[in-house]
Amino acid sequence: MILLQLSAGQGPEECALAVAKALRRLITEAELVRVGVCVLEEEAGPQRGTLRSVLLALQGERAEELAATWNGPLQWICSSPYRPTHGRKNWFFGGALFAPPAASLESEIRFETLRSSGPGGQHVNTTDSAVRATHLASGISVKVQSERSQHANRRLALMLIARRLAERAEQADDRLRAERRLRHHQLERGNPRRIFRGERFIE
Questions:
Q1: Residue 33: CB partners within 8 Å, gap ≥ 6?
Q2: 1 or 181, which is more confident?
Q3: Which of 31, 33, 26, 29 is nearest to 56 (CA)?
Q4: Which of the chain's termini has less CB crowding within 10 Å, N or C?
């Protein structure tokens, strides 16, 4: 099982449309090579039928091969359907693969089994195949019931928690960089105790 995210990043609505189009194309390609695609999370874009981002689980012998073709910067060349007079025709979005979780992560997680809920017919609630996983240190929790077996749902839950931990670490790093920039600007605008001038650094 592989996690792949398609994202418009900070791009305009045309990039979100490109993500939605890419998802449909990816699903078609997956059917041809017998790779299962499950949409785990999606964020709607600004226009109807667009996607700011979508997180997918790919499963099958050729899942890794397929995912690799969608990993990295992606470009859509087309006149804007929303802004006909707009001169730009190049729209960029991206695909990102998530690394498998560290072997030690499983020992940091509490797993609970529960019955699946929602649509699926009469036998959806007959087995305890759904899994809720909680990362004890951070409190991050996910519930997974997209797979038929408890083992597969447990594996997917582990991957989702690893992804959320990675995102949290990245956000913390972004905040630190923002704080450093803010302190830098504050220093620039503050009242200096000393002022040096010229190449000779004369006070």
A1: 60, 62, 65, 66
A2: 1
A3: 26
A4: C
The span from the CA of 36 to the CA of 105, in Å, is: 26
CB contact at 8 A, 41 and 86? no
Region 172-198: mean pLDDT is 58
Write down the pTM of the prediction: 0.65
User: Each residue of 8-62: pLDDT tens digit?
Assistant: 988 899 999 999 999 999 999 999 999 999 888 888 999 999 999 898 989 899 9
Give the domains, in start order, of the chain with CATH numbers: 2-79+91-97 (3.30.70.1660), 108-187 (3.30.160.20)
Do 92 and 11 touch, CB atoms closer than 8 A?
yes
Contact (Cβ atoms closer than 8 angstroms) between residue 66 and residue 35: yes
